[in-house]
Amino acid sequence: MTDVTSEHASPSFTAQPDVVSFASTFKLPPNALLIGSAAVALVGVLIFALLQRRSSKRGSTILLVGPSDAGKTAVFSSLLYSTSLPSHTSMQANSGVLQPTPETTAKLVDVPGHPRIRGTFAEHMKDAKAVVFVVDVNGIARNGAPVAEHLHQVLHAISSLPPSQATPPLLIHAHKSDLLVVRSNTPSSSVSTKSQTRQLAIDRTRTILERELEKRRKAGQAGVNVEGMGAVVGGGSGEESWDGVSGLECSGSKDGSAGTFKFEDWDGGEVSFSAGWVDVVRDDGITQVENEKRKLDAEGEEDGLGTLREWIASLP
């Protein structure tokens, strides 16, 4: 009998270090990279579209608006042709291409100021680069209320523009300032310098318009019917109305306190002022400005629109 010896060898185990791969620790799901790339691309497209939309919404038209007989057409022809043409009350808009600087051009539109058609300026607001409100500074003391009514329509139209459109700056131009006479402290001098008459024109225009617009704002807040509020801004048939406060909102004075209407506190946008004049040639060939006074005021200028031209040239 053969003895068979069975050996049962015990299995041997070798300890292996538990090593975790660095790459596996930060391994992303298969679609995470694709989603991230798509998100980054989408954000880039949105930013580009927003920038393009903003730039495309900046208008290219400069509007000349204001009451009849303020001198808008004379300003229009002087800006375009450097000369004033015989003019009369306009009943239709004039337009032309203005070149404020050698590198820029803009469309200049002169909107009639007749009450029945002056609201047509709203048709051009969607492409407005800037708005110039022309006022006859010599007549504003007696015509302050109707001038303020017209300006209120312009302020309302500007403040009602959609957020996607760049807000056009507003310049209130005190026209015919050469006809103002400022009394000097020196008895021998009765006519001030050009800069003094311009400043007087601006101060007078600002004060009267702020006072009249404040009256309209208070009347609207009190629920009183305000003249001109039933008309459509845009010259329509009157199907749309607006209250006496809309367009005159102010955030308060610079110190944070509530106060009366001030252009510097107006919520609707930027308001600037200028003053000047044009030597208008009438149909009979006589200039509106006397030769003697023109010599005193001209001081080397071809007309009195230098500050207006500078403002237009500074527009973005």
TrEMBL record:
One of its GO terms (molecular function) is GTP binding. This is Signal recognition particle receptor subunit beta. Belongs to the SRP receptor beta subunit family. It is a single-pass membrane protein. The chain crosses the membrane at residues 32-51. It comes from the Eukaryota. The keyword Nucleus does not apply. It holds the Pfam family SRPRB. InterPro entries: P-loop_NTPase (IPR027417), SRP_receptor_beta_su (IPR019009). The keyword Transmembrane applies. Keywords: Endoplasmic reticulum, GTP-binding, Membrane, Nucleotide-binding, Receptor, Transmembrane, Transmembrane helix. GO terms for cellular component: endoplasmic reticulum membrane. It comes from Tulasnella calospora MUT 4182. It is found in: Endoplasmic reticulum membrane.
